[in-house]
Each structure stands twice: as structure tokens, then as C-alpha cells.
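Sharing a chain and its predicted structure for anyone who wants a worked example. Both blocks are below, sequence first, C-alpha cells second.
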Amino acid sequence: MKSDLPRLMQERGLDALAVIGPDGLGAANTAFTYFTGATHVTNGTIIVKRAGDNGSQSYLVHSPMERDEAAMTGLQLVSASDYKMPQIIQQCNGDRLAARVEFMRRLFGDLGVGGRVGFYGADSVGATFSFLSALSRAEFVDVATEYENDVISQARKTKDGDEVAQIRQACRLTESVIGETRDFLRRQRVSGDVLIKQDGAPLTIGDVKAFIRREEAAAGLDDPGCIFAIGRDAGVPHSSGTPSDTIRLGQTIVFDIFPRIPGGYYADITRTWCLGYASDEVQRAYALVMKVHDDIAAAFNTQRNTYEFQDMACDIFESHGHATIRQDLSVTSGFVHSLGHGFGLDIHEPPGMGLRGVRADEQMQRGSIITNEPGLYYPDKGYGIRVEDDYWCNPQGEFECLTSFDRSLVVPM
């Protein structure tokens, strides 16, 4: 949580944080969005200065063109125009990298920032390396970088009440889109085993995805794409679906939808459907997936390492004769992925429930939000199954399911 930042900065010996724009609503820079929220500030720099052991001061350096938007963030404001960047570039003989370093030197001096400063944000790898290398050579601050589990990511492992409320809203709106999509499918005419549109043409994956995008827009959700895959494609976990594939009765459809609300927070929900009917084999596999899902949800706690839940899922699937990724990393049939992951401003965040030894040991904490998404995949048999719900460990240490959409496999037509 943001309230943990002063403690985390103290533990890691950081005197300040610098988060470089652009914002994460138009680009992949969620560290910036973490501080600006739903306000769209195109570019800028956020400075978080540690103030004692239990406090911090946060500043937003912004363009005067966005002064009104910047004010909406609630951060202390610094206008970039005060530093007259064109003059700094001229003084640096047109060297824009040197000018950027000089700008930071003056900014940090005015804000009283010194010592060890952690840098975050999003830019091209080459530009970031060049900038931080030049800044380090300038020696007016000690540049600190972290390869993984950086201080902002560590804070984001748990969500505060406002973040949870935004994720709840994202889930609610997403479930409304799922329901509208199911109703849309049920309204189609059926000829043989194929769904037919009003113009007499077969309904396709592309048609359904176009409907989903319209519904997301109507709900005010941002669409980064979704998975709507049928038959063989449903058996490949991240196949988004072939647009020309027709929608047929009896085939498994994996519908994995992960839009975000204007504040940048995601939902992540998956349902598996068979329209009209499902084969006996698919029904057995679905029942097993739901057993794993429910057993894991009942076992969630903050004492076990997260890889233990992955092991539990593998134990159950293997005991029923299904191959798992634990047995063979290259397996493409059976249970072929990790059990779940955290999410928030990014669709994949810590903690993760993956294989033992792949990442540092971690436990869920009060405030953790995580998906629970076991699945079975048999592309050669023409089916795949995944059911995904979102869980929050509340302040009492109890795990609440944030998603409630009907989990039935068969959709009556």
C-alpha cells in the first residue's frame, strides 16, 4: 500500500523516489499512474521525498498546459516551465541528455533531494540506461536501481480500501459485459450446430469480439483485448481466438476478459462455456477443474508460501491422470500454467502462484488480490477449460471472492 512507502524506503536506504512519465493511462507506466490515479497527466516527474521514518512528501513536476489536471492529483505541484528547459539546452550546447541531467540537478536542489534516490517509470531501454548512467556520473545523487521487487512494486503487493473499491467496480462492470455476451449468444438462431446471424451468415469469433468491445465501451471500460477462443484454440491457454472461426454448439469456449476502469485498475475473469450441451469428457474435466478451484479457494491463507497452492493443484490433477507443468515444463496438454497471479494497475503483479523455486518465496498478505484460475487443456482433442475468479485478503485475513458470475458450463440455447 502507498502508506507502506516511508517504511519501505527506510528499510532500503532510499532518501527519495523519482518516477518518470509519461503516465500509464496512455502507456505502460503504471508506477506513474500509482500516484496520479485516474487523472490523465500526459508527462512529468513524480518525486517522493522521505520525511522522517513515518512520512513522505510527494511532488508532481508538470507542464503548465496541464496545470488543472495536475492539481486534481492532490500532489504538491512544480511547474516544469520554471526551469526554462530551452535555456538549459542552449547552455549545454544542444546536448539534450546533458540538459536533462542539469534539469534534474536543479530540481533536486530546489526540493532538497539528495542521498540515495530510486528511479522508476517507463522509457526505452537504451534511453533509460543512457540517462541513469549520465546521472550517476554527475554525482549529485546516488542513483539506486532495483532489478525486481522494487520498492513501488513491493508497496503495490497489497491494496488499500480505495484500490479494492476500484477493483470491485471493475469486476462488477466486467461481469455485466460477460452477462450481455452470454445473452447475445443465446439470442442467435441455430442451424444444425452453427449459430446464425440475422443476415444468414454464421456467427464468428470476430463478430462476438466486436460485440464485447461495444459492451465494454458502453460500460466505460478500457479494452486491451480479450480471449474468446473455441474448440482447438480453447486448448491453448493464451490463444486469443481465430476471428474467422464459427460459433458451434457443444464446443468449449474459453472467455477470458480483463478490462480496466478509467482509474487504471483491472478485473480478470474467465468462464468456460459450451452452448447447448457438453460431451461427457468435457463435463468430467470441468468438474475436476472446479474441484481444484474450490479446494484452493478454501485453503487460501497468509501462512503458506504461494507455490504450495500450485503444488496442491498439481497433486489433484496428477492424481486423476492429467499431466502438469510440475512434471514437465514443456507439457502442452493437461494443466500447463501457474495457478494464479496478483493484479491491480497491471494485469500481472506479485504475488504469483507458480512453481517452487521459480521466484523468491512469498506469502499472500492482508490486502493481497490474486486470481484463482486452474485449467485443463487438450488442443488435440479440441477443448480447453479455465475458470478464473478474483480474491482479496481483507483486513481480517479472510479471503473474499470479488467475482460472482455464474460458473455453469452449459449455456442453454
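Comments welcome. The chain has a mean pLDDT of 94.
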